[in-house]
Amino acid sequence: MIRIWHPMRDPHHCSFRMMALRMATTRQLSVPRASLLDTFLLFPEYLHEIQYKGFGSLRSSLRDLEVPKPSDSFVSLPDIRTVFRELQVFQKASLRQLVAKNILSAEAFKEGNLTLSSKGIPDELRQVLQAFVSENSRQLSFITDDLSAIPLDGPTGLLRRANLEMGGRFR
Questions:
Q1: What is the pLDDT of residue 120?
Q2: CA distances from 77 to 8, 19, 71, 86, 121 (A)
Q3: I need a surface site. Which of 71, 93, 103, 156 has the fewest CB within 10 A?
Q4: DSSP string across 47-73
């Protein structure tokens, strides 16, 4: 049997993505929002499935990013609800690892937020993360800042717009 590695099921890659999301924005980043944004970072094709009604400028910004549509991808993507639920297992493990390594603040994490601790990210890793954030700055800016214009919960929230309201929550 051939096993193919995919970053979706790698908690270390998930830790890297979570740190990149944290570094890419100055906004407060809650654990549930980070969980959703990580899904979009890993599978940007799902950005096309968000309902942007009332946020038309975001639709044009997404077009400018030239993110491939799911139908144009060579991979058949599963339903976003399935991916979102499966990712949460690895996201929980990676976030707990980052808290245990004192990269993320334990106090902020208990309150449901991702904040770098006073120790922060080790210098070598910070350089690699900064290179990743710089290389993917347009996409990360859209994911972390532009999508933050949409509230997470509620009848017009991002979870409902992405068809995830009943798709499982980060617990």
A1: 87
A2: 12, 25, 9, 13, 33
A3: 71
A4: GGGS--TT-HHHHHHHHHHTPPPGGGS
pLDDT (tens digit per residue) in 148-158:
889 999 888 99
| Spatial distance between the Cα atoms of 95 and 93, rounded to a whole number of angstroms | 6
Q: What is d(CA 159, CA 165) in angstroms, rounded to the nearest whole number?
A: 5
Question: In the block, which residue shows the tokens 């144009």?
Answer: 72
How far apart are alpha carbons 64 and 84 in whole angstroms?
A: 25
d(CA 50, CA 150): 11
First to last CA, the chain: 34
CA distances from 157 to 22, 55, 63 (A): 21, 12, 21
* CA 132 to the chain's CA centroid: 14
The single-letter code of the amino acid at 76 is S
